[in-house]
From TrEMBL:
Similarity annotation: Belongs to the DDI1 family.
PANTHER family: ASPARTYL PROTEASE DDI-RELATED, AT13091P
GO CC terms, sorted: cytoplasm
GO terms classed as biological process: proteolysis
Biased composition (Polar residues): 332-343, 351-361
A family per Pfam: UBA
Xref: InterPro entries: DDI1_N, Peptidase_aspartic_DDI1-type, Peptidase_aspartic_dom_sf, UBA, UBA-like_sf, Ubiquitin-like_dom, Ubiquitin-like_domsf
Subcellular location: Cytoplasm
Transmembrane portions of the chain: none
Domain Ubiquitin-like: 1-76
Annotated organism of origin: Cephalotus follicularis (Albany pitcher plant)
Name of protein: Ubiquitin domain-containing protein/UBA domain-containing protein/Asp_protease domain-containing protein
Keywords: Aspartyl protease, Cytoplasm, Hydrolase, Protease
Entry superkingdom: Eukaryota
Amino acid sequence: MRITVMTADEQIISLDVDLHESVENVKALLEVETQVPLQQQQLLYNGREMKNSDKLGALGVKDEDLVMMVSNAASSAPSTNDLGLNPDGSAVNPGAFQQQIRRDSNLMAQLFQSDPELAQVVLGNDLNRLQEVLRQRNRQRSELKRQQDEELALLYADPFDVEAQKKIEAAIRQKGIDENWAAALEHNPEAFARVIMLYVDMEVNGFPLKAFVDSGAQSTIISKNCAERCGLLRLMDQRYKGIAHGVGQSEILGRIHVAPIKIGNMFYPCSFMVLDSPNMEFLFGLDMLRKHQCIIDLKENVLRVGGGEVSVPFLQEKDIPSSFLDEERYSKQASSSGTSMEPGTTDENKNVPTGTQSSGGSRIDASQKPDLEAKVAKLVELGFGREAVIQALKLFDGNEEQAAGFLFGG
């Protein structure tokens, strides 16, 4: 149907509308025709005001009916006081301040360029947040003005004043720092992003888990809870008890000498130190990285195992449980390049010390010398120097297989 709208300045407008059209939609059409904002329009039908939510048909509007439009711009325009700011930078009337900025498309465009955060707040519906951002911007402006005043005062300071010279030196140093920071933001913004540590999907004894790959950790580590969940706790050798020292310290409960791990579609033998570390589940350390000739390929973002026979991708942040994101901090407490482990007592029957691992190489008990000599002889036959073999065996506490892997890797 067609209705006729007469404005206060006697402008006649014809509109084609539907019987079920809302009054608010009619006002939107009139805004296009008259340039009068929807909020400032007041429509009257038979002397009664039409509310935005009403439907034309429900009000009895019929084809060729006349509707009056009155502009309430004068009454709705905010006063100058309403658009002012308080001493702390907040708006006197935040609602009026927000609407005034919204109506100015040029100002909004400039705001999106210079201060996107404030522009988003202005477009939002949280007036408390708007007030908070306005106060924050006021504090920033005050601080900037204070700094500028100090710099100006230093320009006219007594050149023989020691305190003034110290302030000038500090200002020059800070300016250099700020310029360096600005250059980093422009040319190396990645430096300010959080670095996600390296995790891969593995299976330990048939149980899937997310392994933290840490070439800075000397040993491969599994927590007691994880070992129990994987059915390996029954294999823990408690003769290898001790204390792991790094950034902090953790108790070494023992060692699991060998268990299968699955990386990709291949199985590999692996040994673990068992730690009482509830914050760190499983850490794939340097000992197994060397043994299985792993390559951390950051260009392709994969871990290559066995010299490249298997490649598994490092996990993205969304695939890593949030509880794991601080695991690297706890891993350094458990095992790091500076880790040392307190030696325990020697088992007289087995001649195996209870604390056996350290980053600087553990001391091998004298009762192990005959066995040590046999291992040395065997490795020397492979073409390695005697001193290098002894150092490797000390480094891995007499473990012949790990020592050989180290020597071949070197």
